[in-house]
Specification:
Length: 459
């Protein structure tokens, strides 16, 4: 993508609306807008909103507000004009056509943010956070995207890189004085630093499971026997008739998925086929998919009919689900249909006293839904979400951090085995490269700048 051309595009959602905003950015942005407006906004001060008319073949097309942002104080770092017009699709198209005729080019996908990155207005991770912020659907997802866009994640990465660059420059310096057998980089201090950096990197890597769930929705599988009330529960949680409910066992033969937001965190609920022994090939396939969803879910809602299920049957079902889904899953046990006239809570609480995370509910009458939602929130590390700590939500960042951790481990092994400075330097450069991949700061000159700024080596 070149910064030579001036680009334009619709920045608001396509379609009819109250207003629409068309963004123009580049070296000729002001002059091009002068050609289509009845005022010379190139003479206006930066950060001013100017009333004007858009002219097409000297005829007034629309009354607009043109906001001027002069370089470098704009989103892209270039001269930028944002034209707020009425939201007619016809008007939008005509203004863009006029801009193109005046010399602008249509922007490519993401080009405004790309230019902001190329012009040093933000680093790569901040640029990626712009897309995450736009796509955020819950408070937690929004908070993490905003934290990253404001440079919180970049600051952590840059702090790690700066500390490692200092030692890297010491190791590089040793190579210049190899014949004099001088050691500038204290190996004990390097080992201490490596452990500290590895602790931070590993914590960021570990946070990805939570970050990925925040971004894509915390997956929760609803598992249980036929007619336990799984589809009714899904409908109750969503407040709509999303799944077919029937007295006929085995109605749900495939998975049904939908999302709700609880406490600012998006959850993805998955209604599954009832677990039972069957000769129906299609139902068998549905049961297999139910187990697959249980394996990939962060939490499992294990439902049973409290009026027809014994404690022994529940224990067997729970053991089966744990075996299929894997150990360590957070399982919330839901004793459903407590609205039945024969239900004796005291008796059943005694019968299921040993069951952990047990909640008595009526999915049909939406009883104790608040208690269930609170328990679901406990499956997510909400404390970390709300603490302001960095949570990795981007797969590319996770992969770069994983590679950085591997390189850090190689440095540590090399240091413990007293390998030569040149081999240590290679592994340190690899770590710096992988950390730099996250923010886009892949630059070997960092080492040179560090040496020249802090040491006089007589050259």
């Amino acid at each position: 993508m070149s910064n030579v051309e001036t680009i334009c595009a619709l920045s608001t959602a396509p379609g009819i609306g109250g207003i629409a905003v068309i963004r123009v950015s580049g070296p000729q942005a002001l002059e091009i807008c002068d050609k289509i407006l009845n005022k010379k906004i190139s003479t206006k001060d930066s950060h001013t909103a100017n009333h004007a008319w858009v002219l097409v073949e000297q005829e007034k097309l629309d009354e607009v507000v043109a906001t001027v942002f002069k370089s470098p104080k704009s989103f892209t770092g270039e001269d930028t004009v944002e034209i707020a017009c009425h939201g007619s699709v016809f008007i939008q198209q005509k203004i863009i056509e006029a801009l193109l005729y005046a010399g602008a080019q249509l922007a490519k996908p993401g080009e405004f943010t790309m230019r902001a990155y190329l012009n040093g207005k933000m680093d790569l991770s901040q640029a990626e956070a712009v897309a995450d912020l736009i796509a955020s659907e819950g408070a937690a997802e929004h908070k993490q995207a905003l934290h990253q866009m404001r440079g919180g994640f970049s600051k952590e990465i840059n702090t790690l890189r700066d500390r490692l660059i200092h030692f890297a420059s010491m190791v590089e310096l040793e190579l210049d004085f190899a014949e004099e057998d001088v050691e500038f980089a204290n190996r004990a201090q390097l080992v201490k630093l490596l452990h500290e950096i590895m602790g931070v990197v590993n914590a960021l890597i570990e946070s990805f499971s939570l970050g990925n769930a925040l971004k894509n929705g915390v997956p929760v599988a609803i598992i249980g026997a036929p007619n336990a009330g799984k589809s009714t529960l899904l409908n109750a949680l969503l407040n709509e008739e999303r799944a077919i409910v029937s007295e006929i066992a085995g109605t749900t033969r495939d998975t049904i998925e939908d999302y709700i937001t609880l406490g600012g965190i998006k959850f993805k609920f998955i209604d599954t086929a009832g677990l039972r022994t069957t000769n129906d090939a299609i139902e068998k396939l549905g049961i297999e998919r139910a187990y697959d969803k249980a394996k990939s879910a962060s939490a499992i809602l294990l439902m049973f009919d409290v009026n027809t299920t014994s404690a022994a049957e529940l224990a067997a079902m729970r053991a089966d689900v744990m075996e299929q889904a894997g150990q360590g899953k957070h399982i919330i046990v839901l004793a459903n249909k407590v609205d039945h006239p024969d239900f004796d809570k005291a008796n059943f609480e005694k019968q299921f006293a040993d069951v952990k995370h047990l909640i008595f509910i009526s999915a049909k009458n939406k009883l104790h839904m608040a208690e269930l939602k609170e328990e679901l929130m406990n499956t997510v590390n909400a404390g970390r979400v709300n603490s302001g700590q960095t949570i990795v939500t981007n797969l590319r960042h996770h992969e770069a951090l994983t590679k950085a951790a591997q390189s850090l481990n190689e440095i540590l092994i090399g240091t413990e085995n007293n390998v030569s400075a040149d081999l240590l330097a290679v592994d340190i450069r690899k770590t710096l490269y992988h950390l730099g991949e996250i923010t886009g700061q892949i630059n070997a000159d960092d080492l040179l700048n560090n040496i020249f700024s802090k040491f006089c080596i007589g050259k």
